[in-house]
């Protein structure tokens, strides 16, 4: 198991989730009927959680305040399998509170002072010494400027431990000889006086900017993330590597995409990958993060709005495992799409499929299954859910129609009662006879050796 040490400023992200159906009578602002509150680690905490979600053993060197926010962060991080190495914080926890409706942020409220810590915890030295890779997630609150932290990071590099530094405009410059620094376009433009690192610039401008940053920071490589265009890797005077997004997605909430890129890149480097391979892994993970609008502790619908917020179109949803896509699946999806103006597929996560189908399933992981579904012209979006049924995802999505393939009655479908809450309808469409994933797997023999238990 790859051992990752994440170093950086931790924030508490709070999303107040609700619905907007009217305007305030005393001001031209929306009224949000709050449904729930979602809390999750932000900043370096998000990077640590994302690394742990990839199966890495993660320790997080950070500074937590002895207040309610700090206690909540510690609990969330422990729940995600992250070991916390607390430097202590004399100020108050930095919190970002977003009010959201239908996947859109209406306002963000920032609070908390933060403060530079004064000590390293006793476990820090051993954690740094045993790490396969160090990921610095700088969020500009002072931890990376702390001299003991910088000395420890420099010692780690001197021992040959690879490092990834995700910089911040208000943060510190990377420790010299860092393996890979990962600014986005806006950050690269602010750090570099070469210019040309904005979205409208040419690729040659981005390359010039990345080379200037590599020389300034004395690092082995710079990977500038280009949003929907992927990433640009510069390692020396040779030809730069452009890693495109293989399956472009509709840009939704990109919050956390940079952390997803940095975390995946670090995990790959810690596992022995080449820089080029690590950056490819980072682009793939960041794309999946945006496509699924995925928070580390809870997936939510962000790509589509509720019925009251669309201009007359009919939203249709369907759900399933879709493991080894076959003509029966395609027929169901095409028929479902013809019932409305937009089709969202609610896809069982890997854990959900395993509970439903048993050991050995799914054959394809959720990221591959989602990518195949998104490639179909009849599918507008895919949302992954963890439960056994898509009931909670449906409550967030609120489609007018939910389509189920096969011989069901409304009385046997848990989705029917849920859609009735807002006047939606559950319908069924016929299966294509003789087409099933189980049947396909049972016909695989010889060297194919897929066994269905």
Labels describing this entry:
453 residues; alpha/beta; UDP-N-acetylmuramoyl-L-alanine:D-glutamate ligase; Rossmann fold; 9-stranded mixed beta sheet; 5-stranded parallel beta sheet; 14 helices; disordered C terminus
Based on secondary structure, the structural category is alpha/beta
Number of strands: 18
Tell me, what is the CATH class of the largest domain? Alpha Beta
Sketch the major β-sheet.
9 strands, mixed
CATH topology of the largest domain: UDP-N-acetylmuramoyl-L-alanine:D-glutamate ligase
Estimate the global geometry from the Cα principal axes. Answer: globular
Span from first to last CA? Answer: 28 Å
The CATH superfamily name of the largest domain is: Ribokinase
What strand order characterises the main sheet?
5-4-1-8-9-10-11-12-13
Provide an overview of this structure.
By secondary structure, the protein is α/β, with parallel strands linked by helices. The chain has 2 domains: 3-292, UDP-N-acetylmuramoyl-L-alanine:D-glutamate ligase; 307-448, HUPs (Rossmann fold, 3-Layer(aba) Sandwich). Helix content is 32%, strand content 25%. It has 14 helices and 18 strands. It has helices at residues 44-53, 68-79, 124-130, 147-158, 185-191, 203-217, 257-270, 275-292, 327-337, 350-357, 366-374, 391-397, 414-419, 437-443, and strands at 3-8, 10-23, 30-43, 57-62, 82-86, 95-101, 104-111, 133-137, 163-166, 180-181, 221-225, 231-234, 241-243, 315-320, 342-348, 381-385, 401-405, 425-429. The strands form 3 sheets. The chain has a 9-stranded mixed sheet with strand order 5-4-1-8-9-10-11-12-13, sandwiched between helices. A 5-stranded parallel sheet has the order 16-15-14-17-18. Helix 7 packs antiparallel against helix 8 (275-292). It is globular and about 65 Å long. Mean pLDDT is 84; it is low at 294-311 and 445-453.
């Amino acid at each position: 198991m790859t051992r990752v040490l994440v170093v950086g400023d931790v924030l508490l992200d709070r999303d107040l989730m609700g619905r907007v159906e009217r305007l305030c009578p005393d001001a031209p602002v929306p009224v949000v009927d709050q449904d729930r509150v979602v809390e999750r680690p932000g900043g370096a905490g998000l990077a640590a959680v994302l690394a742990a979600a990839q199966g890495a053993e993660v320790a997080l060197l950070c500074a937590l305040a002895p207040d309610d926010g700090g206690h909540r962060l510690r609990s969330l991080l422990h729940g995600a399998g992250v070991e916390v190495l607390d430097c202590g914080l004399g100020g108050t926890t930095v919190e970002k509170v977003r009010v959201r409706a239908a996947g859109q942020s209406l306002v963000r409220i920032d609070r908390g002072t933060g403060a530079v810590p004064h000590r390293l915890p006793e476990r820090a030295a051993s954690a740094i010494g045993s790490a396969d890779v160090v990921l610095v997630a700088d969020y500009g609150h002072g931890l990376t400027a702390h001299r003991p932290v910088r000395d420890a990071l420099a010692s780690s590099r001197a021992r040959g431990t690879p490092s990834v530094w995700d910089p911040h405009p208000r943060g510190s410059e990377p420790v010299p000889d860092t393996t890979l620094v990962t600014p986005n376009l806006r950050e690269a433009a602010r750090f570099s006086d070469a210019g040309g690192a904005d979205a409208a610039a040419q690729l040659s401008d981005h390359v010039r900017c990345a080379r200037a940053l590599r020389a300034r920071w004395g690092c082995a490589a710079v990977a500038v993330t280009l949003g929907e265009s992927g990433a640009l890797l510069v390692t020396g005077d040779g030809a730069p590597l452009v890693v495109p997004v293989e399956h472009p997605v509709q840009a939704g909430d990109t919050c956390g995409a940079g952390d997803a890129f940095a975390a995946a890149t670090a995990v790959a480097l810690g596992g022995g990958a080449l820089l080029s391979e690590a950056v490819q892994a980072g682009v793939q993970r960041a794309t999946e993060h945006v496509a699924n609008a995925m928070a580390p502790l809870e997936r939510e619908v962000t790509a589509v709005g509720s019925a009251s917020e669309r201009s007359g179109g009919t939203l249709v949803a369907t759900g399933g495992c879709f493991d080894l896509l076959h003509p029966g699946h395609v027929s169901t999806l095409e028929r479902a799409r013809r019932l409305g103006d937009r089709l969202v597929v609610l896809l069982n996560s890997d854990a959900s499929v395993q509970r439903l189908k048993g050991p050995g399933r799914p054959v394809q992981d959720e990221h591959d299954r989602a990518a195949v579904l998104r490639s179909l012209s009849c599918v507008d979006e895919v949302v992954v859910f963890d439960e056994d049924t898509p009931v909670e995802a449906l409550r967030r999505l609120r489609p007018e129609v939910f389509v189920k393939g096969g011989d069901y009655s409304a009385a046997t479908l848990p989705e029917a009662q849920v859609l009735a809450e807002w006047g939606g309808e559950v319908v069924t469409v016929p299966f294509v006879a003789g087409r099933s994933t189980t049947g396909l797997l049972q016909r695989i023999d010889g060297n194919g050796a897929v066994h269905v238990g």
